Each structure stands twice: as C-alpha cells, then as structure tokens.
C-alpha cells in the first residue's frame, strides 16, 4: 500500500467500515510512513474537536498560567485609567 491508496481508505478507516484485511495493510503502512501517521493523528484530533469530545489534554500548569494571565489582563484593563493618570501626572525633571 502506498500513500495514495492509504489516503483513499482514510475515511473508511475512521468510520470503522474497513475490511479487516485492508485494516492490516493500513496499519502496516502507518507503521512505516510518518507522513500518513501525522495525517491520521491530525484527522483524529479534528474529528474529536468537531464531535465535541474533550480529548485534547491541556496541561494543568499551562491552564493555570493562562487563567492567571487572563485575570491579570482583566484587572489591568479595569485599573488602566488610574495607571494612565498617575503616569502622566508624574513631574518631569528633578
Ligand atoms: Zn504514507
């Protein structure tokens, strides 16, 4: 099986409608072809996103940092007028 044949069987593969013998060939190709492995991986993630299945694992540390950054921005935007007034009210020179 080459890449073109593999890609033509891709939808069958994801639908689970694939012939067992073909599935063996598909898996064999996946084991040897990084390009098609990436295609399958990307397609699977895309399908998961569209199904609404939360299979994408967001690292907890990144999630916390992102939340902190968003909160920081919200607080900063709320305080922005005060900060601007203070900055412009600062006397120039000494
Ligand atoms: Zn391939």
Question: What's the arrangement of secondary structure elements?
Answer:
Layout: H1 3-8, H2 10-15, H3 20-32, H4 34-51, H5 60-89
Helix pairs in contact: 3-4
The chain binds zinc ion.
Residues 3, 6, 29, 33, 35-36 line the site of zinc ion.
Give the total of domains: 2
Q: Please, what is the average pLDDT?
A: 80
Shape: elongated
Which parts are unreliable, with pLDDT below 50 for 5 consecutive residues or more? none
> How large is the share of residues in beta strands?
under 5%
**Secondary-structure element order, N to C:** HHHHH
Total number of β-strand segments?
0
Bound molecules: zinc ion
Instruction: Kindly state the percentage of residues in helix.
Output: over 70%
**Main sheet characteristics:** none
Continuous helix count: 5
Distance between the termini: 79 Å
The rounded Rg comes to 26 Å
By helix and strand content, what is the structural category? mainly alpha
Please describe what this structure looks like:
By secondary structure, this protein is mainly alpha-helical. The chain folds into two domains: 1-56, no CATH class; 57-88. The chain is 78% helix and 0% strand. It contains five helices and no strands. It has helices at 3-8, 10-15, 20-32, 34-51, 60-89. The longest helix has 30 residues, at 60-89. The chain is elongated and about 60 Å long. It binds zinc ion. Zinc ion is lined by residues 3, 6, 29, 33, 35-36.
């Amino acid at each position: 099986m080459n890449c073109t044949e593999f890609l033509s069987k891709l939808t069958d593969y994801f639908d689970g409608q694939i012939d067992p013998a073909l599935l063996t060939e598909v898996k064999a190709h996946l084991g040897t072809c990084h390009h098609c492995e990436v295609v399958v991986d990307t397609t699977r993630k895309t399908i998961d996103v569209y199904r609404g299945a939360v299979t994408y694992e967001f690292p907890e540390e990144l999630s916390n940092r992102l939340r902190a950054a968003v909160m920081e921005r919200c607080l900063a935007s709320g305080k922005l007028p005060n900060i601007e007034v203070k900055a412009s009210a600062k006397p120039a020179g000494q």
